[in-house]
Specification:
Layout: H1 2-7, H2 16-62, E1 70-84, E2 87-99, H3 102-109, H4 112-124, H5 128-131, H6 134-156, E3 161-171
Antiparallel strand pairs: 1-2, 2-3
């Protein structure tokens, strides 16, 4: 009978060696997570410390040259028509010019009739199929920006306009 009692497991229902292995596994996982956490934290600390040393020099050099944006709405909106497969189509586009220097923008305003003419010709030469897609609209915006910058460079000697923005775009 003594042999049978010796073979019986303790009251927990599990052998004594199993609890020791479970504690060892949990301890190993905690140690591994702690090591990974310390590694990531140290890497982040050293990399972010190097960026902070470089930022003030860059910000000091860039801050004085950047002026606030100035917007000029070109009213009235552009309305152009074009044909697609024998069907008449219309496009209405409201345009705003973004610049950084008010004096240069005022110098460009003198040439507004030429600028409006170039944009009307650009808009009316487009195809309906390309304008219904977002990519087509963005391409048209970039072409308009290039056209305005080219005219500004030609007439005033500077590009003046940073971007041409579409504030309203209707296709019918």
């Amino acid at each position: 009978m003594a042999k049978q009692q010796a073979k019986a497991p303790p009251e927990g229902g599990a052998p004594a060696g199993g609890k020791g292995k479970l504690k060892l596994i949990i301890l190993g996982v905690v140690a591994l997570l702690l090591a990974v956490g310390l590694s990531v934290g140290a890497t982040w600390f050293f990399l972010s410390r190097g960026d902070k040393a470089e930022e003030p020099a860059e910000e000091a050099a860039a801050a004085p040259t950047r002026q606030p944006a100035i917007y000029l709405d070109m009213a009235p909106a552009f309305v152009v028509n074009f044909s697609q497969n024998g069907r008449q189509r219309y496009m209405q586009v409201s345009v705003a010019l973004m610049a950084r220097d008010q004096a240069q923008l005022d110098a460009l305003k003198v040439h507004m009739p030429v600028l409006r003419n170039k944009l009307v010709m650009l808009f009316s030469g487009q195809g309906f199929e390309s304008l219904v897609t977002p990519v087509g609209k963005e391409m048209l915006r970039q072409q308009a920006t290039a056209t305005v910058q080219e005219l500004a460079k030609q007439e005033t000697g500077a590009t003046v306009v940073e971007q041409v923005l579409f504030t309203n775009f209707v296709l019918q």
